[in-house]
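Chapter summary example: a protein plus zinc ion.
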Amino acid sequence: MAAKKGKTGEVKGVSKYYELGGDTIKSRKSVCPRCGNGVFLADHGDRQSCGKCGYTEFKK
Ligand SMILES: [Zn+2]
């Protein structure tokens, strides 16, 4: 009977996550050592990665 429950809210959660990620990138501003030229690394908590070349830097 209640087969339509469960999927609501999934997309909302995903878009919220990306918004938070964008804010974190702005505040960190670590430049990619490979790309340079104002290409910033995306912060993922325990590591940072470049969306352009794929460079990943682990924090300690
Ligand atoms: Zn890069």
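Key point: The pocket of zinc ion is lined by residues 32, 34-35, 39, 50, 52-53, 55 (CB under 6 Å).
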